[in-house]
């Protein structure tokens, strides 16, 4: 691949990212109307889809010389099987991608640039199709809802029984889809360590206007089948011989609960401090269980944090910062963090200021949801808040399948 040409020509396209991805999808659906049904129907989900495409493309271009690119593409190909993508679709996508790049580049699109992109796309498509063909994992897992609990208006805990065994490590997440909201996939953490009966729990916080989260919290019934993608994510215990702090906010408690279950099965030699942050006491929905564990385990200390009366829910994050500041020896700790994207961002910053080592601070790259931050629209915003592709990065898997 001609890395120099690919990078310099992509820099031109990047400035008009929004235009390029819109053109790409218009071109793709105009020339291949049959492909439309593989993609989300709602405008909002199509926007997410466009962000993802550009994030993946950016990831490829920025990792052209990295040894991680081939595994990334192979895993991407393997994971795209759940979207019913077959080898025949790669040619159509390639044609529309080249058309979009050419149209967006204007005068910068020269025969040399075109040749470089044709060759690069061929390598990308071949690597993805080979990754899909070589995988011995199923394209997805059908899982029956065997229990549905609802806490208040907006939190649902679903227990699922996958029909084929789903191997994962505590702390990992899967993407989830329901026939109630076709072609929409969202990631949810698995909230338990693997169980003998193979069931898994999902904790879902309903987002206003979130069609899948609303269906999962309020509508889905036992007996229904959900579809799960392959487990991914690096929020898995390193089991170093160091004191440990676990910090969870909202349903970010789900993966931390799975990590705690792993620790309960193999108790650590050092202390574990757990901070559970919630928007109010009613949202500390697993508190009775946590209290039982804290009473039974000498190594476990728990601090619950909610906002002061009358304060906004995010004030709990300020209170957490104060509580973290009252503790010492952050340099010695491994810290695992989970919760809303901006919570993770803010709390990581506080921890680093307190002396925690960045390489011992573990969290997923969580996509910003709902009203937390508007999606970037223009070049300037793309540049400042370039969407992180990591959440969709199947190479971030641990263990690698
Ligand atoms: N691996 C991970 O990191 C996981 C992340 N999540 C994410 O956790 C979130 C859970 O949502 P809910 O339960 O509705 O949480 P929530 O909206 O009830 O928030 C819980 C607490 O997080 C803090 N927080 C929320 N937004 C904040 C902001 N913008 N700035 C500073 N602090 C903020 C506040 O202290 C709040 O009380 C979802 O966004 C989900 O994507 C969920 C599971 C796993």
TrEMBL record:
The family database entries (PROSITE patterns) matched by this protein are listed as: FAD_FR, GLOBIN
State the InterPro entries in the record.
Cbr1-like_FAD-bd_dom, FAD-bd_FR_type, Flavoprot_Pyr_Nucl_cyt_Rdtase, FNR_nucleotide-bd, Globin, Globin-like_sf, Globin/Proto, MRET
Instruction: Give the FAD-binding FR-type domain ranges.
Output: 138-238
Q: Which cofactor does it need?
A: heme b; FAD
> Does the keyword section mention Transport?
yes
Please list which residues make up the signal peptide.
none
Going by the UniProt record, its keywords in alphabetical order are: 2Fe-2S, Heme, Iron, Iron-sulfur, Metal-binding, NAD, NADP, Oxygen transport, Transport
- Specify the Globin domain's residue ranges: 1-133
Q: What is its EC number?
A: 1.14.12.17
The protein's annotated catalytic reaction(s) are: 2 nitric oxide + NADH + 2 O2 = 2 nitrate + NAD(+) + H(+); 2 nitric oxide + NADPH + 2 O2 = 2 nitrate + NADP(+) + H(+)
* Keyword Transferase recorded: no
Q: Which Pfam families match?
A: FAD_binding_6 (PF00970), Globin (PF00042), NAD_binding_1 (PF00175)
Protein family per UniProt: In the C-terminal section; belongs to the flavoprotein pyridine nucleotide cytochrome reductase family.
Q: What is this protein called?
A: nitric oxide dioxygenase
């Amino acid at each position: 691949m001609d890395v120099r040409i690919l990078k310099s020509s992509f820099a031109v396209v990047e400035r008009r990212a929004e235009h390029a991805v819109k053109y790409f999808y218009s071109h793709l659906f105009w020339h291949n109307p049959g492909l439309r049904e593989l993609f989300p129907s709602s405008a909002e989900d199509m926007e997410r889809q466009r962000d993802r495409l550009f994030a993946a493309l950016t990831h490829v271009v920025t990792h052209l010389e990295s040894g991680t690119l081939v595994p990334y593409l192979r895993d991407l190909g393997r994971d795209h099987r759940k979207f019913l993508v077959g080898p025949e679709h790669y040619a159509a996508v390639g044609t529309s991608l080249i058309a979009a790049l050419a149209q967006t580049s204007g005068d910068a699109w020269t025969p040399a640039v075109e040749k470089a992109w044709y060759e690069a796309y061929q390598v990308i498509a071949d690597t993805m199709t080979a990754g899909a063909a070589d995988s011995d994992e199923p394209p997805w897992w059908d899982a029956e809802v065997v229990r549905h609990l609802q806490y208040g208006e907006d939190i649902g805990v679903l227990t699922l029984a996958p029909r084929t065994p789903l191997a994962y490590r505590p702390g990992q997440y899967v993407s989830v889809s329901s026939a109630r909201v076709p072609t929409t996939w969202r990631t949810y953490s698995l909230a338990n360590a693997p169980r003998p009966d193979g069931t898994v729990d999902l904790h879902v916080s309903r987002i206003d206007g979130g069609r899948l989260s609303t269906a999962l919290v309020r509508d889905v019934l036992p007996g229904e089948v959900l579809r799960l993608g392959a487990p991914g994510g690096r929020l898995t215990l390193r089991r170093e011989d160091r004191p440990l702090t676990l910090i969870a906010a909202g349903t970010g408690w789900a993966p931390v609960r799975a990590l705690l279950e792993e620790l309960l099965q193999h108790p650590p030699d050092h202390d574990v401090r757990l901070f559970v942050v919630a928007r109010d006491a009613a949202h500390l929905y697993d508190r009775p269980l946590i209290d039982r564990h804290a009473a039974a385990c000498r190594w476990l200390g728990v601090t619950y944090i909610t906002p002061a009366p009358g304060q906004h829910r995010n004030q709990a994050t300020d209170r957490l910062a104060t509580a973290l500041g009252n503790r010492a020896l952050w340099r010695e700790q491994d810290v695992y963090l989970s919760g809303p994207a901006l919570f993770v961002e803010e709390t990581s910053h506080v921890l680093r200021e307190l002396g925690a080592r960045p390489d011992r601070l573990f969290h997923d790259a969580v996509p910003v949801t709902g009203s937390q931050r508007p999606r970037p629209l223009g070049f300037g915003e793309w540049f400042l808040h370039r969407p992180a592709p990591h959440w969709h990065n199947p190479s971030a898997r641990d263990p690698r399948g």
